[in-house]
Design brief:
With 241 residues, the protein is an alpha+beta fold. The protein has six helices and 13 strands. It has helices at 3-9, 19-23, 115-121, 142-150, 188-195, 226-235; strands at residues 27-29, 32-33, 47-49, 52-53, 62-67, 96-97, 106-112, 130-137, 164-171, 174-181, 199-208, 211-212, 221-223. Strands 5, 6, 7, 8, 9, 10, 11, 12 and 13 form a nine-stranded mixed beta sheet that branches. A four-stranded antiparallel beta sheet has the order 2-1-3-4. It is elongated and about 65 Å long.
Amino acid sequence: MRLNQFLAHAGLGSRRSVEALITSGRVTVDGAVATLHTHLEPGGSDVRLDGRKLQLPDRSTYLMLHKPAGYTVTRADPHASKSVYELLPPDHRRLAYAGRLDRESEGLLLFTDDGVLCHRLLLPSYRIEREYLVSVSGAWHPALGDRLVEGVKFPEGPPLAATRVHTVSEHAGGAELSIVLTEGKKREVRRLCAHVGLKVTRLRRLRFGPLELGPLSPGQSRILSDAEVAALRRLVRIDRN
Protein backbone atom coordinates (compact mmCIF):
# COMPACT_ATOMS: atom_id res chain seq x y z
CA MET A 1 0.00 0.00 0.00
CA ARG A 2 1.18 3.53 -0.75
CA LEU A 3 1.89 5.59 2.35
CA ASN A 4 -0.63 8.28 1.45
CA GLN A 5 -3.34 5.60 1.27
CA PHE A 6 -2.38 4.32 4.72
CA LEU A 7 -2.47 7.81 6.24
CA ALA A 8 -5.86 8.50 4.68
CA HIS A 9 -7.28 5.23 6.03
CA ALA A 10 -5.82 6.13 9.45
CA GLY A 11 -8.07 9.20 9.47
CA LEU A 12 -5.58 11.96 8.64
CA GLY A 13 -7.42 13.31 5.61
CA SER A 14 -7.65 12.60 1.91
CA ARG A 15 -4.74 10.99 0.07
CA ARG A 16 -3.92 14.35 -1.49
CA SER A 17 -4.04 16.31 1.75
CA VAL A 18 -1.76 13.89 3.63
CA GLU A 19 0.94 14.36 1.02
CA ALA A 20 1.80 17.66 2.73
CA LEU A 21 2.51 15.73 5.94
CA ILE A 22 4.84 13.41 4.05
CA THR A 23 6.76 16.09 2.14
CA SER A 24 7.26 18.10 5.36
CA GLY A 25 9.27 15.20 6.78
CA ARG A 26 6.88 14.59 9.68
CA VAL A 27 6.17 10.95 8.79
CA THR A 28 8.55 8.04 9.35
CA VAL A 29 8.25 4.39 8.36
CA ASP A 30 10.36 1.90 10.32
CA GLY A 31 12.49 4.76 11.61
CA ALA A 32 13.27 6.35 8.24
CA VAL A 33 11.81 9.63 7.00
CA ALA A 34 9.18 8.74 4.42
CA THR A 35 8.75 10.09 0.90
CA LEU A 36 5.82 10.20 -1.49
CA HIS A 37 7.14 6.98 -3.03
CA THR A 38 7.19 5.02 0.23
CA HIS A 39 5.19 1.78 0.25
CA LEU A 40 4.39 -0.41 3.24
CA GLU A 41 2.56 -3.52 4.35
CA PRO A 42 -0.35 -2.55 6.64
CA GLY A 43 0.16 -4.13 10.04
CA GLY A 44 3.80 -4.92 9.30
CA SER A 45 5.40 -1.47 9.33
CA ASP A 46 5.99 1.07 12.11
CA VAL A 47 4.40 4.29 10.82
CA ARG A 48 4.67 7.48 12.90
CA LEU A 49 3.58 11.10 12.61
CA ASP A 50 5.67 13.48 14.73
CA GLY A 51 6.80 10.41 16.67
CA ARG A 52 3.26 9.20 17.38
CA LYS A 53 2.56 5.68 16.14
CA LEU A 54 -0.30 5.37 13.68
CA GLN A 55 -2.58 2.39 13.22
CA LEU A 56 -5.58 1.56 11.11
CA PRO A 57 -8.90 1.38 13.00
CA ASP A 58 -9.48 -1.82 15.01
CA ARG A 59 -13.05 -2.15 13.76
CA SER A 60 -13.60 -1.08 10.21
CA THR A 61 -16.68 0.33 8.54
CA TYR A 62 -18.00 -0.92 5.20
CA LEU A 63 -20.60 1.13 3.38
CA MET A 64 -22.35 0.80 0.01
CA LEU A 65 -23.63 3.88 -1.83
CA HIS A 66 -25.95 3.99 -4.84
CA LYS A 67 -24.19 6.76 -6.75
CA PRO A 68 -26.48 8.91 -8.91
CA ALA A 69 -25.33 10.49 -12.15
CA GLY A 70 -23.76 13.95 -11.86
CA TYR A 71 -21.65 13.27 -8.76
CA THR A 72 -17.85 13.08 -8.87
CA VAL A 73 -16.01 10.39 -6.89
CA THR A 74 -13.69 12.71 -5.02
CA ARG A 75 -13.30 14.01 -1.50
CA ALA A 76 -12.14 17.48 -2.55
CA ASP A 77 -11.89 18.82 -6.08
CA PRO A 78 -12.46 22.52 -6.93
CA HIS A 79 -13.64 21.50 -10.40
CA ALA A 80 -16.34 19.11 -9.11
CA SER A 81 -19.74 20.73 -8.60
CA LYS A 82 -21.05 17.76 -6.58
CA SER A 83 -19.09 15.15 -4.63
CA VAL A 84 -20.29 11.70 -3.59
CA TYR A 85 -19.19 12.59 -0.06
CA GLU A 86 -22.16 14.98 0.13
CA LEU A 87 -24.38 11.89 0.01
CA LEU A 88 -22.72 10.05 2.91
CA PRO A 89 -23.82 10.37 6.53
CA PRO A 90 -21.57 12.96 8.28
CA ASP A 91 -19.93 10.35 10.51
CA HIS A 92 -18.90 8.27 7.46
CA ARG A 93 -17.27 11.00 5.35
CA ARG A 94 -13.81 9.93 6.51
CA LEU A 95 -14.13 6.64 4.60
CA ALA A 96 -12.11 5.99 1.45
CA TYR A 97 -13.69 4.78 -1.78
CA ALA A 98 -12.64 1.44 -3.25
CA GLY A 99 -12.61 2.19 -6.96
CA ARG A 100 -14.29 4.92 -8.94
CA LEU A 101 -17.22 5.57 -11.24
CA ASP A 102 -17.05 8.50 -13.64
CA ARG A 103 -19.31 11.48 -13.05
CA GLU A 104 -22.18 10.40 -15.30
CA SER A 105 -22.10 6.74 -14.27
CA GLU A 106 -24.39 5.34 -11.58
CA GLY A 107 -24.57 2.42 -9.23
CA LEU A 108 -22.67 0.54 -6.58
CA LEU A 109 -19.79 2.33 -4.90
CA LEU A 110 -17.97 0.89 -1.88
CA PHE A 111 -16.48 2.95 0.96
CA THR A 112 -14.36 1.63 3.83
CA ASP A 113 -11.57 2.43 6.27
CA ASP A 114 -10.24 -1.14 5.99
CA GLY A 115 -7.00 -0.28 4.24
CA VAL A 116 -5.87 -3.84 3.57
CA LEU A 117 -9.19 -4.84 2.01
CA CYS A 118 -9.46 -1.64 -0.01
CA HIS A 119 -5.97 -2.13 -1.42
CA ARG A 120 -6.51 -5.76 -2.40
CA LEU A 121 -9.91 -5.17 -3.97
CA LEU A 122 -8.24 -2.90 -6.54
CA LEU A 123 -5.39 -5.25 -7.44
CA PRO A 124 -5.79 -6.64 -10.99
CA SER A 125 -4.37 -9.99 -9.89
CA TYR A 126 -7.56 -10.85 -7.96
CA ARG A 127 -9.70 -10.38 -11.10
CA ILE A 128 -12.72 -9.15 -9.17
CA GLU A 129 -15.78 -8.91 -11.37
CA ARG A 130 -17.65 -5.65 -11.90
CA GLU A 131 -21.03 -6.01 -13.60
CA TYR A 132 -22.60 -3.08 -15.43
CA LEU A 133 -26.03 -2.58 -16.97
CA VAL A 134 -25.30 -0.46 -20.03
CA SER A 135 -27.77 1.27 -22.34
CA VAL A 136 -26.29 1.95 -25.78
CA SER A 137 -27.45 3.62 -28.96
CA GLY A 138 -26.28 2.41 -32.35
CA ALA A 139 -26.52 -0.62 -34.58
CA TRP A 140 -26.27 -3.45 -32.06
CA HIS A 141 -25.57 -7.04 -33.05
CA PRO A 142 -24.50 -9.86 -30.67
CA ALA A 143 -21.31 -10.25 -32.71
CA LEU A 144 -20.22 -6.89 -31.31
CA GLY A 145 -20.19 -8.51 -27.87
CA ASP A 146 -17.58 -10.96 -29.13
CA ARG A 147 -15.46 -8.03 -30.28
CA LEU A 148 -15.70 -6.43 -26.83
CA VAL A 149 -14.48 -9.67 -25.23
CA GLU A 150 -11.66 -10.03 -27.76
CA GLY A 151 -10.46 -6.64 -26.61
CA VAL A 152 -9.02 -3.48 -28.08
CA LYS A 153 -5.46 -2.15 -28.09
CA PHE A 154 -5.46 1.60 -27.68
CA PRO A 155 -2.31 3.58 -28.59
CA GLU A 156 -2.36 5.59 -25.35
CA GLY A 157 -2.65 2.70 -22.90
CA PRO A 158 -2.96 -1.02 -22.17
CA PRO A 159 -5.47 -3.24 -24.02
CA LEU A 160 -9.06 -3.18 -22.77
CA ALA A 161 -11.47 -6.10 -22.87
CA ALA A 162 -14.74 -7.23 -21.37
CA THR A 163 -14.98 -10.59 -19.61
CA ARG A 164 -18.58 -11.31 -20.63
CA VAL A 165 -21.24 -9.47 -22.63
CA HIS A 166 -24.91 -10.45 -22.59
CA THR A 167 -27.81 -8.83 -24.44
CA VAL A 168 -30.53 -7.94 -21.93
CA SER A 169 -32.87 -6.36 -24.45
CA GLU A 170 -32.89 -4.80 -27.90
CA HIS A 171 -34.91 -1.93 -29.28
CA ALA A 172 -34.96 0.29 -32.33
CA GLY A 173 -31.68 2.19 -32.38
CA GLY A 174 -29.97 0.47 -29.50
CA ALA A 175 -29.83 -2.16 -26.78
CA GLU A 176 -29.37 -2.79 -23.08
CA LEU A 177 -26.33 -4.90 -22.24
CA SER A 178 -24.86 -6.67 -19.25
CA ILE A 179 -21.09 -6.13 -19.39
CA VAL A 180 -18.71 -7.76 -16.91
CA LEU A 181 -15.13 -6.58 -16.38
CA THR A 182 -12.41 -7.78 -14.02
CA GLU A 183 -10.57 -4.46 -13.78
CA GLY A 184 -11.69 -0.92 -13.17
CA LYS A 185 -9.73 1.03 -15.75
CA LYS A 186 -10.77 4.61 -16.44
CA ARG A 187 -13.92 4.87 -18.63
CA GLU A 188 -13.29 1.32 -19.87
CA VAL A 189 -16.89 0.47 -20.76
CA ARG A 190 -17.46 3.73 -22.62
CA ARG A 191 -14.21 3.41 -24.57
CA LEU A 192 -14.89 -0.20 -25.54
CA CYS A 193 -18.39 0.59 -26.74
CA ALA A 194 -17.22 3.61 -28.71
CA HIS A 195 -14.68 1.42 -30.50
CA VAL A 196 -17.47 -0.73 -31.97
CA GLY A 197 -19.67 2.22 -32.87
CA LEU A 198 -21.91 2.30 -29.82
CA LYS A 199 -22.67 5.31 -27.65
CA VAL A 200 -23.31 4.71 -23.97
CA THR A 201 -26.42 6.58 -22.90
CA ARG A 202 -26.63 5.16 -19.38
CA LEU A 203 -24.23 3.09 -17.28
CA ARG A 204 -25.01 1.51 -13.92
CA ARG A 205 -22.77 -0.76 -11.85
CA LEU A 206 -24.97 -3.49 -10.40
CA ARG A 207 -22.34 -5.71 -8.81
CA PHE A 208 -18.83 -5.50 -7.37
CA GLY A 209 -17.51 -8.99 -6.63
CA PRO A 210 -20.11 -10.61 -4.32
CA LEU A 211 -21.83 -7.28 -3.53
CA GLU A 212 -25.09 -6.53 -5.33
CA LEU A 213 -26.72 -3.10 -5.52
CA GLY A 214 -30.19 -4.59 -5.14
CA PRO A 215 -33.09 -2.24 -4.27
CA LEU A 216 -30.93 0.55 -2.79
CA SER A 217 -32.29 3.86 -4.13
CA PRO A 218 -30.07 6.44 -5.89
CA GLY A 219 -28.32 8.65 -3.36
CA GLN A 220 -28.92 6.21 -0.51
CA SER A 221 -26.29 4.23 1.41
CA ARG A 222 -26.23 1.30 3.81
CA ILE A 223 -23.75 -0.55 6.00
CA LEU A 224 -22.68 -3.94 4.66
CA SER A 225 -23.81 -7.04 6.50
CA ASP A 226 -21.27 -9.26 8.27
CA ALA A 227 -21.87 -11.90 5.59
CA GLU A 228 -21.07 -9.40 2.81
CA VAL A 229 -17.86 -8.30 4.53
CA ALA A 230 -16.82 -11.92 5.06
CA ALA A 231 -17.43 -12.65 1.37
CA LEU A 232 -15.24 -9.71 0.33
CA ARG A 233 -12.45 -10.80 2.66
CA ARG A 234 -12.57 -14.38 1.37
CA LEU A 235 -12.41 -13.09 -2.18
CA VAL A 236 -9.05 -11.41 -1.58
CA ARG A 237 -7.79 -14.10 0.81
CA ILE A 238 -7.74 -12.10 4.04
CA ASP A 239 -7.85 -14.31 7.12
CA ARG A 240 -10.84 -13.82 9.39
CA ASN A 241 -8.52 -12.91 12.25
